[in-house]
Amino acid sequence: MYDDPEYRYPDTDAGKEQLLSDLNKRVQVIRAKLPQYFGTLPKADLIIKRIPKVTEAGAPGGYYQSGSLDGKRPGMYYINLRNTAEVPRWTLGTLTYHEGIPGHHLQLSIQQETNLPLIRKVSFFSAYIEGWALYAEQLADEMGMYADDPLGRFGYMHDAMFRGVRLVVDSGLHAMKWSRERAVKYYTDTLGDPEASAITEIERYCVTPGQACGYMLGKLEILRLREKAKAALGPKFDIRQFHDAVLLGGAVPLAILDKIVDNYIAKKRTA
Q1: Strand, helix or coil at 47?
Q2: What integer is the mean pLDDT of 90-106?
């Protein structure tokens, strides 16, 4: 599917502009669904831009940059368009839900806009923030974003496998003493991704040991807490209120998130 030209945007300025336009349309569709799943919505707008040409060679496939605390600068979702063959159409949904809505943009904008001390508005705990973004990938599926998009579902499944591959690679490099070359080969052989994408990821894991594992730890914890709240509250469980409980306190260590959800459950039981 990576090699099929049917799924590629032309590697031209016009093709890249069309890709950005299609991403914006996708964001508008999921934005309209948010009130069914979230009690609190971000005020900050989301702008989608390509990573600057001067830095794209060493940059990941996409990343998010928070808006300004005063609300004057919107959140930015940057996507790497150094070669559109690296980002075929079927991969773009999950990346957008992770970096944009309901992923990083929604979570970090709410964190900045809530009534928290300044240090809490800018705090960063990787397992929480990246765990939320991985959870958002699954939530987008639950919101019906792939109901009429079977190719997008392939992309979602591909990225789920990618999350597993990076756990192997992270552990291989730092616990099993894999070489960079062995890690790149395992990545490309297992996922089928272009080597350029694999190298970007592997070199990142080389200098941030354990961070890739933090993504999955955070996602699994949020899912565990959601099931815990559902079991405890039964018919009183409301996904919008659960998401508010998780998001309105901003980024916290996972042990603290556990206590936050326990408090939410206790209040709902007595309400």
Answers
A1: strand
A2: 95
Alpha helix segments (H runs only) across 34-149:
92-99, 104-113, 118-121, 126-142
Domain span holding position 135: 5-213
List, for residues 188-222, the tens digit of each pLDDT value. Answer: 999 988 898 899 899 999 999 998 999 999 999 99
Residue with tokens 């996507």: 79
Take residue 257 and report the two structure tokens written for it. Answer: 């998130």
CB proximity list for 221: less than 8 A, separation 6 or greater? 127, 131, 254, 257, 258
In a domain, 269, yes or no: no
Residue 244 structure tokens: 């508010």
Give me the mean pLDDT over the 53-69 stretch. 90
Distance CA 76, CA 162 (A): 24
Section 133-143 average pLDDT: 97
pTM beyond 0.90: the answer is yes
Tokens matching residue 90: 């079927």
Alpha-carbon gap, residue 232 to 235, rounded angstroms: 9
Domain membership of residue 237 (yes or no) is: no
231 in a structural domain? no
Q: Round to whole Å and give the CA distance between 254 and 224.
A: 11
The gap between the terminal CA atoms of the chain, to the nearest Å, is: 52
What gap in Å lies between CA 33 and CA 146, rounded to an integer? 13
For residue 62, what are the β-bridge partners? 79
- Asked if 23 contacts 48 with a C-beta cutoff of 8 angstroms, the reply is yes
* Count of domains observed in the chain: 1
Question: Which one, of 229, 238, 232, 234, lies nearest residue 257 by Cα?
Answer: 229
Residue 239 lies in a domain: no
46 close to 74: Cβ distance less than 8 angstroms: yes
Q: Which two tokens stand for residue 103?
A: 């992923």
* Residue 129 Rama label (left phi>0; alpha psi -120 to 50; beta): alpha
